[in-house]
Write the structure tokens for this entry.
Amino acid sequence: MNLYFWPPQASLHAEHVDWLIGTFGLLVALLAAPVFILSAIYLVRFRYGRKADRSQREAGNVWLETSWAVIPFLLVMGFYVWSTRIFLDQQSPPDNALTIDVIAKQWMWKFQHAGGQREINELHVPVGRAIRLTMTSQDVIHSLYLPALRIKQDVLPGRYTQEWFTATDTGTFPLRCAEYCGTDHSVMGGRLIVQTPADFARWQAQAGADRSLAQRGHELFDRLGCAGCHGGNAQGQDAAVRAPPLAGLYGKPVPLADGSIVRADDQYIHDAIMLPNKQVAAGYKPIMPPYGNVLDEEQVTQLEAYIRSLGAGGGT
Amino acid sequence: MTEAKSQVNPRMSQEAIPDTAEERVSYLAEGHTLKSWLTTTDHKRIAILFLLSITFFFFCGGIAAALIRLDLLTPAPDLLSNDGYNRAFSLHGIIMVWFFLIPSIPTTFGNFLIPLMIGARDLAFPRLNLASWYIFVLGGLATLATVVLGGVDTGWTFYTPFSSTYSNGAVFMALTAVFISGFSSILTGINFIVTVHKLRCPGMTWGRLPLFVWAHFATAIIFVLATPVLTIALVLVALERVFGIGIFDPRLGGDPLLFQHLFWFYSHPAVYIMILPAMGVVSELITNAAHKQIFGYWFVAGSAIAIAVIGFMVWGHHMFVSGQSAYASAIFSFLSIVVAVPSAIKVYNWTATLHKGDIVIDGPLLYALGFIGLFTVGGLTGLMLAMLAIDVHVTDTYFVVAHFHFIMVGGSVSAFFGALHFWWPKVTGRLYNDVWARLSAILIFCGFVMTFAPQFLLGYEGMPRRYHVYPAVFQPLNVMSSVGASILAVAYLLPFTYLFWSLRYGKPAGPNPWGATGLEWTTPSPPPKHNFETVPIVDKQAYCYPVGGRGEQSRPRTQKADDDG
């Protein structure tokens, strides 16, 4: 059995976090030192029965107390700024990031690549490339935890959350569920496999998806008869009266029946399919049936991919 | 014969000592029937009822902890099934939080001491006080019913939608148990607030209140303001679980994060319910051991109130990775650093109080020092958790488990034992063997550190909490932790043996064995039913210890009467 005291670092962010906790740990030790050292000294020097100068005892000293409240606070604030900047950087993935869909369910992790490759409890990614994980849960709250990258994000039902990273080392790293989710929570884990771009390309080919995510979504779109209202391949003219056309929708502002405006992002499209009466587009009747009991989250992400592929103003 | 005699500790005798004159007229002598206890409205007797009940629950929670640590000796699931393990840690959390830690110091020592410390004959509402105990017992019975019904597997946090929709444990019964116990907290809180406002004896101004009373005043405010929010949250979970009303489950149109906001709006202040009374105890123990005025009375008293107030504004730091707004997280992170300041003030002030003291190192002081050491570590690692970038990595791991056990167990439980030892002579009228007290204080400290220090490392290495099965690389540290836990278990049992022993064989304590200031020490030990024969009048600050050191009246406690050196 090999003992190890520090988890592997597989990204620049992991390095930053380690530096932060290391230096902050030093500050914290420095703040605690007077308590431990002075207590020990006082216990010896002023022990009962020992001769010591006990005259001129102080019952308080406002300046002393203010200084030992304010100085540590200011020192800690320096670290607060540093830590918050690292955290906020971690909130916005770069635009060129490779997006992978993550669907959590009791008790497994499913990953869907844009090319259509799907894997369970294993996540293959190329080294040196920003990866954005768009995550949702089929049932309860889970949390995708990648200790080697020092990141973690809860995965919620009915909502998309995201985390991103750029792995700097190839290798296999643990992937765990960190939010308690029931019986097999502790075995809901897997492996993050970081590969060189060449190896990753080989894996992609080998994983052998015959259709891309968007193509799967297109098939689903046809099979469910969405075109009946949303337009044949989103181009029909008559149908557009009953339901909003989908071509060019993605990323655009959508005026709603209640007068507000939302952006047609993944979350909006997800809710429009699963809970269509939540946000009804202006000018249309709320007649679409909810698909919450018909589709699972994987299928929704495929439909989203399809709608995304319709892009701004184009067909398939 | 003389040899045997010299080995006998002067605090103990070989023969049972018959009741003293004080004991024959004390509150303990006011009726010996079960009925006289179950219908009492005497705050001191109710404190004893609470003490017995929470001790029972402490052992129940301890058994669950023992199962957990035993099972974690190996990475594989051997002792318990996955479901069994989940039930064990859920029960451990629910019992320890709501049926031990929350009521621990306030309902026992707070109940017993607040009237004595402020020169009152009882709490403001004696019957409400008894009602609080009955409600607590009812909640406790509901918890035991949960176990009989097959247990609950939601963790003590009841996160939705797992608890409201997916769990198949006895969630409703567990919710009921916690729901009921909340009313006990609220009643005790109201009682304390009114008592401190209305029943202080002449001369007992706010500026002369013992810090123990200040701490409990702050705690009572949290009891009254935070507990109803938990009550509401639990009712909402029950509504969704039983009637399918969509509040938290997104499939029913609810929002799972709403529950976390409501839950932590109570449960973070609840952490201060657990720690503030402990801080009050430590202020008493340190000043008495050092035989010296507290350093910075108003800073220590004010920081208790500051903690109670700011404590309501930091709940979001439990949700940095939950999906709440990043900017909200940044603000909660800042406020969490702010709330650490009053705690830091207290710790530095206790240290300064020892300066130029006349320090007797005995059982109660060792427990107090144990508190300060463990609380400091727990508090500073809490500061690390307040840092967003660190928290993202270590939240929901063993780092957090270690952190809050340092505060709640290392801190609060150490202070609870310190209070038990310090006021034992007042409560029972008897002295215990201080050698054993010192030994168990040291053993508790060492056992605790060995149990929980390795968990910081486990957490940083990436072992999530609530993991039954874990990767083999984590085993050495888990074994270390489990070995420490077995030491801790023995150390916790130890005081119960020599304290019980002292009830029969301990020497009578006399009114003030520690030479302490404070009105509770002016009464006989144990105190009579109505505490004070005449209403006391206070004309001094708290902790007005003589400047010239210990006089004859305040002989230090560990010195034997016939021992000169």
About this structure: The helical segments of chain A are 12-45, 62-89, 197-207, 213-223, 227-230, 266-274, 297-309. The two ends of chain A are 55 Å apart (CA to CA).
